[in-house]
Amino acid sequence: MGAGADPFETHIGPLCFKIEDDRSICTGFEPKRHHLNGGGALHGGALMGFADFSLFAIAHHELRGVHAVTVTCNSEFISAGDLNGLVEARGEVLRDTRSLVFVRGLITQASRPLLAFSGTLKKINPRPRT
């Protein structure tokens, strides 16, 4: 799995993604103690940050050559995660327009659903470097 170059994602990760043989995207991270909440389960914020990362990874092909920002990121908690096993996300692009990409996915751990997510990404022109 490859890793991104976003400083926040590096800090909360490492978060990785791979392109499957069928061109679908799988994202993942190995949970560590710093991903837990006070109750010993994976922190909701860690899962939501991973969901946002996954939106962009799933839309990797549609975002080729452009930058994008998150317009919406919706999440529904389904089950608690823990330190026992890789956390993965898979999803699909529902629609790709000239300026927006609509994505949905599911985060799992050992095939157990943890979080359903969806979001909209806005394509933007890259900022000039100074």
Please give a structural write-up.
The protein is α+β, with helices and mostly antiparallel strands. The chain has a single domain, classed as Roll (Thiol Ester Dehydrase, Chain A). It is 16% helix and 42% strand. It contains 2 helices and 7 strands, in the order βαββαββββ. A hairpin with a 2-residue loop joins β6 and β7. The chain is globular. The termini are far apart. The model has no long low-confidence stretch (mean pLDDT 91).
Overall pLDDT confidence: 91
From the N-terminal CA to the C-terminal CA, the straight-line distance is 31 Å
Identify the CATH class. Alpha Beta
- Helix- and strand-based class? alpha+beta
Instruction: Compute the number of strand runs.
Output: 7
Widest sheet: strand order?
1-2-3-5-6-7-4
Low-pLDDT stretches? none
Helix content: 10-25%
> Which descriptor suits the 3D outline?
globular
**Looking at CATH, which topology would you report?**
Thiol Ester Dehydrase, Chain A
CATH architecture: Roll
What would you report as the Rg, rounded to the nearest angstrom? Answer: 15 Å
Largest sheet: 7 strands, antiparallel
Give the domain tally. Answer: 1
Series of secondary-structure elements, N-terminal to C-terminal: EHEEHEEEE
DSSP helical segment count: 2
Which superfamily, in CATH terms, is the homologous superfamily? Hotdog Thioesterase
Quickly describe the structure.
The protein has 2 helices and 7 strands, in the order βαββαββββ.
SSE inventory with pairings:
Layout lengths: L1 E2 L3 H6 L3 E4 L5 E5 L14 H15 L8 E11 L9 E10 L3 E10 L2 E13 L6
Antiparallel strand pairs: 1-2, 2-3, 3-5, 4-7, 5-6, 6-7
